[in-house]
Amino acid sequence: MFDFIRTHQRLMQFLLLLFIFPSFAFFGLEGYSRLTDDSGVAKVAGQTITKEEWDAAHRQQLERMRQVYGNQFDSKIFDSPQARRAILDNLIAQRALGAEVVANKLVVPDQVLQQSILQIPGLTKPDGSFDNEQYRVLLAAQGMTPKSYEAGLRREMAVQQLNAAIQSTAFAPRTVAENLSNLNDQERTVQMLNFKPDSYAAQVKVSDDMLKAYYDKNGARFETPEQADIEYVVLDAAAVAAQAAVTDDDIKAYYEQNQKQYATEEQRRASHILITVKKDAPAAEKAAAKAKAEGLVAQLRKNPGDFAKLAKANSQDPGSAENGGDLGYFAKGAMVKPFEDAAFSLKQGEISDPVESDFGYHVIEVTGIKPAAVKPLESVKAEIGAEIKKQIAAKKYSEMADQFNNLVYENGDSLKAVSDKLKLKIQTATGVTRALNPAAGPLPYNNAKFLTALFTDDVIKAKHNTEAVQTAPNTLVAGRMTSYKPVAKRPFEEVKADVQKAVLQQEEQALAVKAGQERLAQLQAKDDATGFSDAKVVSRVKSDGWTQEAFNAVMKADTAKLPAYVGAETQGLGYQIYRVTKVEQPKTVDTARRKAEQEQIVAALSQQEALAYLDYLREKAKTKLLKGAAAVSADDAAK
């Protein structure tokens, strides 16, 4: 049972690392062959992974994690030799999987690729059609073309097919799942005897020597952290945009060049009655369907108000018949062409002759018309001005970023030069510490990377500016200290009351634990229920109200002989003895939860299959770790 749980935990960690280091999997580098090739860091299926590719993947990962975690992001975790090795492992796995895709000639059909792209959020126009222009803009912003993106997506989907084929082979034997669920459901009836620390307060004798010894041993508890008052400047898109001048002529020109963005196409609302007939149906069937449609047209020409009633009674379109044939508003391109041509040629309230399409014959009534319209310039003037500023800022940011870097470095004793030249406000903050302050929120200086640059000897002792630190995409921050207070230990007399309280609690806890352990030994030798609390029931799925220490002790207790006694120390709460009197399975089980547990077991086994398969592909692709990887790792470890 516990071996399986530990395996499952490792697999859950694996899944977490899949998120941290996308997109497939990674595995340890132990066992790789080593070469002396200096041109790269690894070779997979005859292809070399270069140091540049490794560095680029590492930078991209750091940026992804910074965007996910914001100010909570600690670059030290992901900038370690272990993290870099994991990224290299991921690159190796991708190459090995890619080589297998090619070897097996796995291909993603155009139709499947197209369906995947159509599901990308934000690329649907109001009329429901795909926005090709926005698609190209989004890709261009990431330095890609539709062709390059689609080629990469096709490769990734092919690899997913390969992975899915392997993982789908896993299954969990029913007896294994039942045994694990039974262990989860198992209920233990327990009584408790509590030894509380405050019960031993009268026995504690605290001397000045004890207080002084505790103060000396736990000095860090009585320190005030280093603090600094700082000033800083921020260069970001908003600061650049604020300096961009936009004239009315600029706005007007943009409006005229991009009128399609501010225009809505003509839309029509229509109802229809569909008499279905297959496209390749015999002529007699088609004639009968058309005759029925013509008969309905004749009735409607006499009584137009009966359209909804006749649609409910006669239309063979299940999607609209119940609504009286109503199809709602639609623009051109939303309907099949014969239907669209007829609907956009009719006047409001006019009823068509039978219109033939691949679905059969339609009788159409136009019930509403929304003419094409263009928003007036005045209504979108502010929006256009903001967009132009945004575009100017995007072009100007790189130039100003270079200036920012140079000015901060060349005028290392002050931020005035960069402030004056780039028109950036010098901002201040007090009580800044080396650690992130969650209460401060997303302030520019409350960033792990910036704080690391700030708390250096060059800034603290030499009073220099920090380097220009990129804290987010298109955001640079530089700062300097105006005052600094190092770590200081508060005087003993100032904290004596706190020390005395801590020593008293420590001694009370020790006495409670000692008394509890002595009583536990007596109870294990001779059963005695005197003093125990009322019985409670606990299981692995019903553990509310139990501390982790108590729960672990009770569930690990050897229940071969009942009653069974176990003890647990809870810091600050003394010592508890637990008397287990009954172990049984519940009379009813949660079938839905058991099903979910079985699915989790299958998922875990699927991941095991995937790991084993990747290990096989690594060997098949003749993966070799090159000399460059060892050299880079040694450099990292020395930092």
- Name the beta content range: 15-25%
> What do the pLDDT scores average to?
84
Radius of gyration: 36 Å
Instruction: Tell the overall outline.
Output: extended
For the biggest sheet, the summary is:
4 strands, mixed
Ends apart, CA distance between termini: 42 Å
Percent helix, as a range, is 40-55%
- Number of helical segments? 22
By DSSP, the count of extended strands is 20
What order do the strands of the largest sheet run in, or round the barrel if closed? Answer: 1-20-2-3
Domain PpiC: 265-368
Family: Belongs to the PpiD chaperone family.
InterPro entries: PPIase_dom_sf, PPIase_PpiC, PPIase_PpiC_CS, PpiD_chaperone, Trigger_fact/SurA_dom_sf
Keywords: Cell inner membrane, Cell membrane, Chaperone, Isomerase, Membrane, Rotamase, Transmembrane, Transmembrane helix
What does this structure look like?
It holds the Pfam family Rotamase_3. It is a single-pass type II membrane protein. Residues 265-368 form the PpiC domain. It is found in: Cell inner membrane. Belongs to the PpiD chaperone family. The chain is α+β, with helices and mostly antiparallel strands. The chain has 22 helices and 20 strands. The strands form six sheets. A four-stranded mixed beta sheet has the order 1-20-2-3. Strands 17-4-19-18 form a four-stranded antiparallel beta sheet, sandwiched between helices. Strands 13-6-15-14 form a four-stranded antiparallel beta sheet. The longest helix is centred in the middle third of the chain and has 34 residues, at 377-410. The chain is extended, with a radius of gyration of 36 Å. The chain starts with a helix and ends with a helix. Mean pLDDT is 84; it is low at 1-38 and 634-639.
